Amino acid sequence: MHDSRETLLRNAFVTGCPVKHSRSPLIHGHWLSVLGLQGSYTRQEVTPEDFAGFISRLKSGESGFVGGNVTIPHKETAFRLADRPDALSEELGAANTLWLEDGVLHATNTDGYGFLANLDATAPGWNKTDRAVILGAGGASRAIIQAVRDRGVGEIHVVNRTAARAQELADRFGMKVHAHSMGALPEVMKEAGLFVNTTSLGMDGEEAPVFDFSPLADGAVVTDIVYVPLITPILAQAVQQGFAVVDGLGMLLHQAAPGFEKWFGVRPTVDDALRRIILADM
Ligand code: ATR
Is 225 annotated as a binding residue? Predict the structure, then answer.
């Protein structure tokens, strides 16, 4: 006879290469435990050569997973191999969350949701000026541009060391998005209500250049998706110059919630206890 609990046991994963630094197991493990759910969330290191096989075993049910998160370098391939990518992942060409429903593999991208949910929770009313400046033009920048655009911000300025990459994003997203090289920062910051760093500048003790945030609008919010250290050199400068700041840890926590709900059936809460658990691990 089957143990009745067996039917409730759901297993999810985070896959990447490497994946050992991922903090997602701590987040989902905390939620499973506080919600008293039977389930697991484990790291699955999969090389690019093995990734198609991993997805095929996921689809067939052989691996026993109900879905999972996907991180570097598999986000684009995950999107391509999914049976039913949603409109968000379709526009980005990348997925970070997969789930099975009746044998059909669905995909979405929750990075933009995580970014906005974190801003909304920490700096409600942030969208005051209709102008945002986004530093960087990689995958994270792309998801954040999409989210900020979908929230209705009218002018989005992407500033990047390699201006051609910023231009690619502007071309992809259309009229609201403008591309610039780094030299344009003082000009595009004028009266902007939101400044986002999506680059690795200032990560893990690395130095960041000096930023003069004074052209930003009064009450502007400066945020960084880097969360090690929690107060990055960019955020520290913004605080010193009198601006409100939002750290990047909340984005990591919030982007995890939609996947958890898909796999385990309950929408989890992002709270201080969870923040403390991740901070204690840093
Ligand atoms: P992700 O997917 O995390 O966004 P990515 O695609 O590697 O990562 O993009 C990294 C971003 O950080 C890019 O915008 C990169 O600028 P380039 O396009 O010019 O490479 C930016 N970046 C990384 N190191 C930087 C540095 N030292 N100075 C300025 N920008 C930097």
Answer: yes
